[in-house]
Amino acid sequence: MISDGRTRIRHPLGAPPGTLIPLGTGGSGPVRIDVLSFDGKESEEQIGIAVETAEKHLKDPRMTWVTVDGIHDPQVIREVGQAAGIHPIFLEDIMNAMIRPKLEVLDSQILVLMKTPVYDEQSKELVLRQVSLVVGPRYVITFLEQPTDLFSPLKKRITTPGSSISKKDADHLAYALMDILVDRYYTVLDTLESRTEDIEHEILDNSRESLSLDIHRIRGQLIILRKVLWPTREIVRSLLRDDITSPENRLYYSDIYDHVIQLMDHVDTLREIVSGLMDIYMSSISNRMNAVMKVLTIIATIFIPLTFIAGIYGMNFSHMPELDWAWGYFAVLGIMVLVVAGMLYFFRRKGWL
Amino acid sequence: MISDGRTRIRHPLGAPPGTLIPLGTGGSGPVRIDVLSFDGKESEEQIGIAVETAEKHLKDPRMTWVTVDGIHDPQVIREVGQAAGIHPIFLEDIMNAMIRPKLEVLDSQILVLMKTPVYDEQSKELVLRQVSLVVGPRYVITFLEQPTDLFSPLKKRITTPGSSISKKDADHLAYALMDILVDRYYTVLDTLESRTEDIEHEILDNSRESLSLDIHRIRGQLIILRKVLWPTREIVRSLLRDDITSPENRLYYSDIYDHVIQLMDHVDTLREIVSGLMDIYMSSISNRMNAVMKVLTIIATIFIPLTFIAGIYGMNFSHMPELDWAWGYFAVLGIMVLVVAGMLYFFRRKGWL
Amino acid sequence: MISDGRTRIRHPLGAPPGTLIPLGTGGSGPVRIDVLSFDGKESEEQIGIAVETAEKHLKDPRMTWVTVDGIHDPQVIREVGQAAGIHPIFLEDIMNAMIRPKLEVLDSQILVLMKTPVYDEQSKELVLRQVSLVVGPRYVITFLEQPTDLFSPLKKRITTPGSSISKKDADHLAYALMDILVDRYYTVLDTLESRTEDIEHEILDNSRESLSLDIHRIRGQLIILRKVLWPTREIVRSLLRDDITSPENRLYYSDIYDHVIQLMDHVDTLREIVSGLMDIYMSSISNRMNAVMKVLTIIATIFIPLTFIAGIYGMNFSHMPELDWAWGYFAVLGIMVLVVAGMLYFFRRKGWL
Amino acid sequence: MISDGRTRIRHPLGAPPGTLIPLGTGGSGPVRIDVLSFDGKESEEQIGIAVETAEKHLKDPRMTWVTVDGIHDPQVIREVGQAAGIHPIFLEDIMNAMIRPKLEVLDSQILVLMKTPVYDEQSKELVLRQVSLVVGPRYVITFLEQPTDLFSPLKKRITTPGSSISKKDADHLAYALMDILVDRYYTVLDTLESRTEDIEHEILDNSRESLSLDIHRIRGQLIILRKVLWPTREIVRSLLRDDITSPENRLYYSDIYDHVIQLMDHVDTLREIVSGLMDIYMSSISNRMNAVMKVLTIIATIFIPLTFIAGIYGMNFSHMPELDWAWGYFAVLGIMVLVVAGMLYFFRRKGWL
Amino acid sequence: MISDGRTRIRHPLGAPPGTLIPLGTGGSGPVRIDVLSFDGKESEEQIGIAVETAEKHLKDPRMTWVTVDGIHDPQVIREVGQAAGIHPIFLEDIMNAMIRPKLEVLDSQILVLMKTPVYDEQSKELVLRQVSLVVGPRYVITFLEQPTDLFSPLKKRITTPGSSISKKDADHLAYALMDILVDRYYTVLDTLESRTEDIEHEILDNSRESLSLDIHRIRGQLIILRKVLWPTREIVRSLLRDDITSPENRLYYSDIYDHVIQLMDHVDTLREIVSGLMDIYMSSISNRMNAVMKVLTIIATIFIPLTFIAGIYGMNFSHMPELDWAWGYFAVLGIMVLVVAGMLYFFRRKGWL
Fold it and tell me: Closest Cα partner for A127 from A228, A254, A245?
């Protein structure tokens, strides 16, 4: 399908506010909850725990990182929400993978809704996966639309005893997570850029009909990236401007900000280049048609007069003096050769040969 | 008709201000007035009441929701306006379905003019219906351009004894109504999006001539949606910013705001995709022409030289040595086969076969 | 002429500032001055008066509305200017019909330069006529580029004894005049919209060559409307914001403001739709060419091979066995029928028939 | 050459700041300095004076207007600069005709760099000439890239005894000069507008190939005008806003401001119209191709079948019964007439004839 | 390769912040460090020194300019960073040649990341090279992505005894360096402009197919220049606005600012002109196709009817009266001449000949 990459809007009409309805392409199995606690010295990782266990960890004075691996089960989301004291209207946002990236601050909690892009090399489709962060004083909860191993290197760094990140606060963990999510865009953009280059090369080679669709699809994917990067930029700007993050993390968040700006720059540049491709494609079609027409014109223009001459002497008039001349046939053949030579000269002068 | 979806402007020239003239596509029958009173404990619904009855309800300390099912009868609008103390210039706006969405605040009353989109699957036309809300301290009056069952689920929720909405104030009822109106755009946008996908598929299949008109029409409909969502956004922003709504409802209105922003985002994305479709359509026409030209060129280029050769030996010269050769005919046939083979090889090398 | 609708700039080079030079398409005859005085109870209308008479009326405590029916006579403009105490640099603006709409406030006088559009159904040209208003404490002077009966209904309302407008102040009279001028745009826009619809229908029917010029012309006219509505909006906004109008008229001016915004919205929508028309027109030309090419290709592809076969048996070789077969001729006719059938099958499969 | 109208950038690499290098298309001869002193009563004009004489005049309590007729001689510029106390970095700007219009204020001096457009009717090229004004308390110095008689009418007005301008201050003289420079744009724009109209007419008549280049060139010239008007607007706005000009001249400068705004409006309108022309041109080429194809198709479609029929009866089968029928030949001619009639009917129904 | 000019993004996924990874197209050999110390009287230049020597120089009260000729060796960068007290996160930026130009101020150090464009005449590719400036109280350190002789003239000016620049402070040296970097854009823009003119000329001459790619490539290069000039402008504006530079250098920086603005202006103008070229190219292809079609149509339209006539009299009917007429053959030839004359007249009237 052409447009799978676009986020389709499916919205329940007339539902009262606060209703928890999963909106997204998430899975259907049971939702796994993992927890990782650390305090700079040692770390403790637990996989597949119950909500109550997670609740205990959240009250732990150590830094706690809870991962909820799916947003399609309202029951689990509600329980985790109650355990962490998340406002119901935020829970609704967390379950709604159709929502734009956004930042909400309420009391001591920060809610960050972000998207991470996934590009399927096979089907050449771009999908956005929602990742929500709930950042509290000593904990970060991540809600993932789909299980992902994106955070494995970070987990490894945290569990490495004495690593710098394991000594940092919740703000810094949130930064590290957001940094990974933003980095993902580079990879996708890189892929789109090399696909654009492939198309550039292909256009002059054969300009198969589906190239226009390929260009259209990349353009659509760049529009989606642009639309999701814009609010992402707003989120980071708010974090920087509104004194939400601690001063020592300011520099790190400003690094993410630079990245998002740079990504938007690249998306814009690529969009302009891709939209230029359509023009080249159109001109290459026209050039090809021109080439076809020239072949037809050259052949027709050379042979139609010749056939006419042959036709003349195929007439059956009883009185046609040339027919009886001994050298008549060869004279006609000679004339024909002259006509062909004249035509070829004409085409060469026109630059068609 | 192509452009029924566009709001046609019909404006009476030179009428003095305050003249009540119905402007819209509303009906012509008598205007029905319904009322729904509730106080969190019990609710009372009356259908088809007189204006005087409605006036009594408006003074009721219970929450009152009055619905006026038509804006084409100046007499009724004037009476309701007097009963509720609505400024005459607002009444003019309420009756004018051609006006942009807008918000007016006067003393204790808030006037919200909104549009809800209706998409006719049959004729593929988009119509905007005006819904005006007059929000007072303890009442909401809705003026509908056309009767609609859009609000039935809300009515059911209110009349359900002990439901949360039945305990809320007028601000909240207004929110609930606006939420329903905004949700409507999702449905219409969803339809337009799937129509766009259909066209994407169709372009490569057959590119019938009317496809360009279909693209044009969807583009026009998206422009209309954009133009009506923009002032809607302004309305909700004003409600949020200017301390018009009560603080407890702020969060709900901000939810509508998110929705409107998201809708505008989607409309913009879709507009860019739709405008890309025109390019694909043009390139597909050109590709098709190329294919036609190639068939013509191949046939002509193969047979014109052959016909010429046949023409040569159809000439009636008395002295044509080849004609008398025993194997002359077969030699010519052989030459023709060689010419055809050469041409086919040439076309294959050009990639035309 | 194609571009009559555009305001051509004719500017005298090097003239010192304050020189009164008529710039516009105004007439050449004598300039008529009319006056209408009223005080809510009775009204007095005088037509074709001398400047001195007008001066007396201007000092009248009654409301006075002076109409100057032409701006091409520097003498008259200068005298009226002196009588009403208008700054010379304003007089220059009043005579210059090439100027953008603008608002100037000096002491107790407000100068409003507006344009009213006139659409000539015959030549399909759009002309902008300048109407300047000088609003003083108890008078309004209107300078018309061309005589018009646009204000007749207003005059009738004023002269109707006891009408509400006859009791209002100069601000309100200015409002009423501006309202009429703005309403005019609705009519013109309506005409342009229905012309756009006509073109939509025509494109698919016959796409005559001049359609592209028609589209171009409408686009040009919409650009002109946009360019003139923008400063008009600024004028009304200034009047609203800068406490120039009295508070009781604020609501009325805000009504004009809504109208101008709505007009700009409509112009923008229409412009996008019109610019889409050009695409459809182009694609319809291409489709038409495709159809022509298909006819040529079908005919040529069917008959060229047949002619070749006939050519074969038209050759005069002395040894051509088929020629002597009794059923040779009919066999060849049979083969030709098969070729035709094959071709038709091929075209049907390609979807060309 | 196509693009002579564009200001080509030639910049010396690595030169230290303050180096005086002439950048522009100015002449090469000796630079003439003229001076005009006046005090409202009498005026004194001197042509071709030495720098020292100019210096004396600058200290004169009378108003002094010094004209430097060329900016290509660093020596002269440096001497004049020292005489008038102009900052060296300003002198660099004055000599650099490649710079954008700009305004600099330093102590008691105002430096205004402006461009005046020159349109060469012959070569149809647009050139921008730099005119710099250095405005001091009692003097104005104008540096001209090229000698011009643009200011002759102004000189005449000043030297007219008792003229109003001869009594005004340096600010006012600067205004008068800028007014003349701005007025120049009207003339050029007028020319471009009438050229646009010519092209509109020409497109439908013959659409010669170079029309696209003509459109391209006008578009380029309008871009240049836009780019130079924008900073010009900024200059005038700064002069108005920043209390640089005296209050009595405010009204005059605001007049220039109106003119610049109006010019930008016109440039924008014209740009949109010109860019629409390209579309019309493209559609006219396509229409022309359509016409050519129709002629070919009609001729080929009529004669190819006829030639085939003739070919049939040109075959030499020994057994072809029709050949021996007495009326065979005439029957075939009759059939051919019927075929032609059928084809013509078909084309007429298609609307091709 | 088509798009070498674009900065390709290669970003290491999941690396912790502060990791020094060279990102760019820099070399691989050892990194050379040069130092130039001066105090207005004498200067001392050392080439290829050790980091420790550089450190000593940095503490020197004389002005010191250290050049690091490569950013691909993390070891060297780290050591230089420690010697000069540069924040680690800045070192990361310095090594990342993929980053946008940016300005960072921390305590007494200013970090300026700039790009200088390099245009390869051979491959017609545009590359951006990063140059980072670290400006301290009495030193400037430049990190170059690639060795360059861009700064040689500046070095010569500094080492010239008694030159003005050798007496200035670090701010001024930074200005001189930035000025050189910005000047570089003029050269590149000049090249792009003359290439654009070449293409303009070429389009009408032969419109070879790769012209569309050339236009596309220039467009891409202009987009890159635009994207890099924008943040450069921001850098200079910050330097001017935020009191970072000393007042005496303000005028110089404002000169750079003017240059950057002017460059952006030129890039924009050129972009609009280049995008217009594509239209001309398309129209020239269509014109060429038109010419081809006309030749085909003229030839076919003249000879097809003639061939038909010849075919008629090639039929073998036993009863064809014309064949026996003595002048039949010549009559037919005469008719053919008339047909040709008629066709030629028709084509001449159509303006095709």
Answer: A228
Residues of chain B with pLDDT under 70: 1-19, 21-27, 207
Where is the domain boundary, C283, C306, C336? Answer: C283
* Inter-chain touch E212–A279, beta carbons under 8 Å: yes
- Chain C residues in contact with D320 by the CB 8 A cut-off are 329
The tokens of A225 are what? 């990236």
pLDDT band with cut points at 50, 70 and 90 for residue A4: very low
Look at residue B16 and tell me if it is in a domain. Answer: no
Residue C311 forms part of a structural domain: yes
pTM: 0.84
Spell out the residues 6+ positions from residue C87 whose beta carbon is closer than 8 angstroms to its own: C106, C109
Same-domain status, B305 and B236: no
Are residues B95 and B226 located together in one domain of the fold?
yes
D269 in contact with C, Cβ within 8 Å: yes
Residue C14 lies in a domain: no
> Chain C neighbours among D 47-106 (CB < 8 Å)?
none
Torsion of CA B33, B38, B43, B44, to 10 degrees: -30
Interface test with B, best of C191, C199, C279, C282 (most B CBs within 10 A): C279
- A-contacting chains (≥3 CB pairs under 8 Å): B, E
Convert the pLDDT of each residue in D301-345 to its tens digit. 999 999 999 999 998 888 888 888 888 889 999 999 999 999 999
Confidence band, pLDDT 50/70/90 cuts, at residue D7: very low
CA nearest B324 in C: which residue? C318
Q: Is D174 helix (H, G, I), strand (E, B) or coil?
A: helix
Cα–Cα distances in Å, from A55 out to A79, B143, D61?
9, 50, 88
Check: CB of residue D306 under 8 Å from CB of residue D336: yes
Per-residue model confidence (pLDDT) at position A318: 84
Considering its fold, how many domains does chain C have in total? 2
What's the Cα-to-Cα distance from A334 to each of A301, A329, B320, C317, E17, rounded to whole Å? 18, 9, 14, 21, 84
Residue for token pair 């003095």: B16
User: What pLDDT, on the 0 to 100 scale, is given for residue D6?
Assistant: 39
Q: Is residue B8 part of a domain?
A: no
Residues B138, B194 share a domain: yes
What CA–CA distance (Å, rounded) separates C343 from B306?
Answer: 19
DSSP for residue E114: E
CATH code at B295?
1.20.58.340
**CB E332 to CB A318 under 8 A?**
no
Kindly state whether residues C259 and C322 are assigned to the same domain: no
3-state secondary structure of B168: coil
Model pLDDT for residues E135-158, shown as the tens digit of each residue: 988 899 999 988 888 898 899 989
Nearest CA to C300 among B344, D336, D308?
D308
Cβ–Cβ gap B100/C276 under 8 Å:
no
Pick from B108, B107, B79, B106: nearest CA to B95: B79
- D208 interfacial to chain C (CB closer than 8 Å): no
Rounded Cα gap, residues E232 and B12, in angstroms? 56
B21 touches chain C (CB under 8 A): no
* CATH classification of the domain holding A59: 3.30.460.20
A72 and A53 together in one domain: yes
Nearest to C101 by CA among C251, C204, C226, C246: C226
CB < 8 Å to A193, chain E = 3, 6, 8-9
B311 touches chain C (CB under 8 A): yes
Q: Is B319 on the interface with A (CB under 8 A)?
A: yes
Residue of E287, E296, E346 for testing the chain D interface, max D β-carbons within 10 Å: E287
- Mean model confidence pLDDT for chain E: 86
Domain range holding C334? 289-350
Does the beta-carbon distance from B213 to C280 stay under 8 Å?
A: yes
Q: Tell me, what's the ipTM?
A: 0.80
The residue out of A250, A283, A316 marking a domain boundary is A283
